[in-house]
Design goal:
Keywords: Oxidoreductase. It is built from 10 helices and 4 strands, in the order H-E-E-H-E-E-H-H-H-H-H-H-H-H. By secondary structure, it is α+β, with helices and mostly antiparallel strands. The protein folds into 2 domains: 100 residues, Aspartate Aminotransferase, domain 1 (Alpha-Beta Complex), CATH 3.90.1150.10; 83 residues, no CATH class.
Length: 224
């Protein structure tokens, strides 16, 4: 992931763009040269890639993760004006680039606890994890009627549709043009719930108790 970000950085700099953040792990912020952020975004969208634009500073930020491929990096570089980029050459150049200061690299021992050296085989590790599991108290044993997450728990049958490929993999910051279907479904569901319950308003939230608490913190001044 970090190597792909470095490859992207080297490729962008090779065609005259300026990488603003010299220290980075997975996100490169760029001041573009010879192309506007709007035009670059449009080129990336045509290639199926969304990037972030900071209009106040005129920069774009590009993040890579485990799902990012060399093909994605090539597409981003081609959109930036790099002709026929050779990923192998750029990767070699990226190996020489240091994007993280030495003082930020770990020097201390990690995984030093004896528990990490105790269980060597798969079966031993499995039994150890199961012993930890048996100490927990969950819905397989009963119900703890506390906590907003428990209150909001939905049955698996009700959330099965959330795993359908038609609904999944949408980015939280995707543009409105790319989420019209999701918006239409949400608005339709909200209206149906209002019709059934006679409520004045309905809020759709993820399965997180924190969302409910955040919602209440917003509503509380109105109630009081």
């Amino acid at each position: 992931m970090h190597n792909k970000a470095k490859t992207l950085s080297v490729g962008l700099e090779s065609v005259g763009h300026t990488v603003v953040n010299g220290t980075f792990f997975d996100t490169v912020t760029v001041n573009l040269k010879g192309i506007t952020p709007e035009d670059y975004v449009a080129c990336c969208v045509e290639k199926g890639i969304n990037i972030f634009v900071d209009y106040s500073h005129g920069t774009v930020s590009i993040s890579v993760d485990e799902a990012s491929t060399e093909g994605h990096v090539l597409s981003l570089l081609e959109a930036a004006g790099l002709q026929l980029p050779v990923i192998g050459v750029l990767s070699k150049l990226a190996e020489q680039k240091r994007a993280m200061p030495l003082q930020m690299l770990r020097k201390s021992v990690f995984l030093g606890h004896s528990i990490f050296q105790k269980y060597k085989s798969e079966s031993e590790l499995m039994r150890y994890i199961h012993r930890l599991h048996r100490k927990d108290y969950g819905l397989t044993h009963g119900c703890v009627p506390l906590g907003s997450c428990t209150v909001k728990l939905s049955p698996a049958a009700a959330t099965l549709s959330l795993s359908w490929p038609e609904f999944t993999n949408i980015h939280p910051l995707a543009s409105k043009e790319q989420t019209r279907g999701h918006s239409a479904l949400c608005l339709d569901l909200e209206q149906k719930i209002r019709d059934i319950t006679a409520l004045d308003a309905v809020s759709l939230q993820p399965n997180s108790g924190a969302q409910g608490e955040y919602c209440w913190s917003l509503c509380d001044p109105l109630v009081s």
